Structures are given as C-alpha cells and as structure tokens.
Amino acid sequence: MTTPMLPPPSTLQKTLAWGVHAFTATGAVWGLLSILAIQQRQWKLLFLWVALSLIVDGFDGFLARFLHTKEYAAGLDGALLDNIIDYLNYAFVPAYFLIEVQLVPPQTGLLVACLILLSSAYQFSQSDAKTDDHYFKGFPDYWNILAIYLFLLQWNPWFNLAIFLICVVLVFVPIKYIYPSRTTRDRTLNQVLAYTWGALGAAAIILYPKIPAWVIWASLVISAIYLVMSLIHTFLPRKPSS
Predict the structure, then answer these.
(1) Nearest of 194, 215, 190 to residue 205 by alpha carbon
(2) Exposed, middle or buried: residue 155 (CB in 10 Å: 0-12, 13-18, 19+)?
(3) pLDDT digit string (tens) for 118-146?
C-alpha cells in the first residue's frame, strides 16, 4: 500500500516539525546535567534530569509521527538523532554513575561500565533493534533505570554485578521487549502500566530521600509484569487473523 501524498507544508507545519527535532535534542542537555549532578552528588537533581530524558524519549516519537517530521523536516534524520541522545542517556550516563557510586565491587566497575557501553553500541546499531511489529529486540538498554533501582535498593554490590552481567547477555538474546508507546498487543494495559510506573517515579522524585518502600516495590512489580508480558509475547505470539 502506497503512502498518501501530503499537501505542501505551511511555514507553521515546518516550524512544528523542526521543533520536534529540537525537542529530541534537549535530551543531550538532560544527559549533561545528569553527569554534573552525579559529580556533585545531587541525587534528587539526577533523578529529575533522568526523568526528563525519559519524558522526551517517550513523547518525541509520537510527536514526530503526528507532525510528519520525515516529510516536513527531512533535512535531519530524527531516528539517528534519537539514537545518539538515547546512547548518552541510557548507556553512558548510567555507566559513569555505577562507577562513581560503586554499585558493583570497585575492582569490577570499569569492566562493567565498558561492557554496558559496548553492548549498547551493538544494540543501538542493529538494523532491527526495533522490530516491524514495534518491539525492542534484546534487552533495550534501560541501564539508567536499572542503575537507579539498584542505587535505591542498596543491594550487595556482588549481587548487582550479577544483575548487570545478566542484562549484558540479554542484549544479545532476541527476546521481544514491549515498546510501551507503540506495541499494539495489549496496548491499553501497556499504557496503563507505563503511566502508573511514571506516576510512581514522579512520587519517588518528590519524596526523595524519604521514599516509602512500597513506592519502589510497586514500580518494580510493574517492571516485572512488563518483563513477563514481553516473554509471553515472544514465546506465545498471537496467530495472524485469517
């Protein structure tokens, strides 16, 4: 089926389309501010900048499709820009963070950080990192979220090391992870879980450092549900309707 031709864009439409690219690019600012917050041990600010980077990443794709950036702002590759920003925020920032706060045994910190950066470089470079039916293939480099969970939970560094290494391996295992804003199967449930998780995250930022344990564990339960649903979608795919 051919894509319908769009009418010539107005100046406003072009401006809005380019504005989406600018919105995506702000992720680089949140990444830089995250690094500065880590250096200054300002954890509440760090969580805020990470949250803003997640918000940008969660909405820029929708805005790009809605405002036709591919057609009206074609001079810039939005997907490439998004990958650059995501690599900074989802891989580099958490790799630096885990070294600085010693989430893993100090003698292993640099190694784990390098493994995160190298596996993420592979993940972001795959031509099918996002499948045609709108899933992430392999662990989708949520290193920033994982690092913050482990920071808040204060588990044994050797246990954290095992978790990081397992996730590095999972980058290369072709499990289909739900893309909350785009996966169509169980779409309503996906979005309810995503918004609930986001609300819990906002509450955690506001309440830090006195976050009630139930807030952290409730968000972890949602993450576990997301993982279980991803496994179900991978190994029990729906049959195409005849």
Answers:
(1) 215
(2) middle
(3) 999 999 999 889 899 999 999 999 999 99
